[in-house]
Amino acid sequence: MKREMNQLKKYFGMGMIGAGISLALLAVAWAIDHFWSWPGIMTDRVVLGRIGAVLMALGLGLHIWSFATLRNWWFHDRLCTGGPFRFVRHPMYAAWITLICPGLALELNSWPILVWAVCLHPLWHVLVWPEERLMAERFGEDYQALAARTGRFIPRPSFSAGSKTRRKDGGS
Predict the structure, then answer these.
(1) Would 31 be classed as within a structural domain?
(2) How crowded is the C-beta side of 89, counted as CA atoms within 13 Å?
(3) Is 35 helix (H, G, I), strand (E, B) or coil?
(4) Is 88 helix (H, G, I), strand (E, B) or coil?
(5) C-alpha to C-alpha distance for 165 and 151, rounded to whole angstroms
(6) How would residue 94 be classed by pLDDT, with cut points 50, 70 and 90?
(7) What is the DSSP secondary-structure string of 116-167?
(8) What is the C-alpha to C-alpha distance for residues 108 and 88, in angstroms, rounded to an integer?
(9) What pTM value is reported for the model?
(10) Which of 15, 111, 141, 160 falls 20 to 30 Å from 49 in CA-CA distance?
(11) Is residue 60 part of a domain?
(12) 8-34: per-residue pLDDT in tens?
C-alpha cells in the first residue's frame, strides 16, 4: 500500500533534522577544540590539508551526482537505483559523513572535529531508520532488493559467482 508523503520529507528525507543535529555537535566539537589546547593531528599541515581537500572534493562530486540522480524520485516518484544509488542507499548523506566531514577535520587539523566526523556514522545509521521504513512501505520488494545488495553509506563488496568457485578442469 503506497502512502502519501509530505513533500518536505520527499525532498529532504532526514537531511534537515540530521544536518541540524550534526551542526549542533560540530559546534560542541569546535568549542572543545577552541577553548582547550588540543594538539593537531599532524605537524605537517600541508599533507593533511591536501588529503582533506581531496576528500572534500570527492564528497562534493558524490553529492552533486546524487542530487542529479534524485530526479527520478522527486519528479517521477520512482525508486532511484542508478548512478550512485547502485552502490549505496544514501549517497548524499554518505558524501557528507564519509568524505566531506572527515576532510574538513583533516583540513582543520583538529582531533575533536575528527572525533565528531567519526561519530556521525553511527548517528546517521539511526537517523535514517524512519526514512528507510518509509521507502520500504512505498516501494516494497524493489526497495528490499536494493537494501539487500547495497550498503547504507559504504558500498558492500560484491562477489561474482565465478570468483567464488574454481572450474573443475583446473582453470580459474
Answers:
(1) no
(2) 21
(3) helix
(4) strand
(5) 24
(6) very high
(7) HHHHHHHHHHHHTHHHHHHHHHHHHHHHHHHHHHSBSSSPPP---HHHHS--
(8) 28
(9) 0.80
(10) 15
(11) yes
(12) 454 456 778 888 999 999 999 999 999
Within a domain: residue 81? yes
Domain membership of residue 13 (yes or no) is no
pLDDT > 70 in the chain, percent: 84
Could you read off the pLDDT of 46-86 as tens digits, one per residue? 999 999 999 999 999 999 999 999 876 777 778 889 999 99
**Residue where the block lists cell 512505498:** 138
Which CATH number do you get for residue 117?
1.20.120.1630
How many domains does the structure of the chain reveal?
1
Helix (H, G, I), strand (E, B) or coil at 99: helix
CB-based burial label for 149 (10 Å; 0-12, 13-18, 19+): middle
Q: Which of 156, 153, 157 is nearest to 66 (CA)?
A: 153
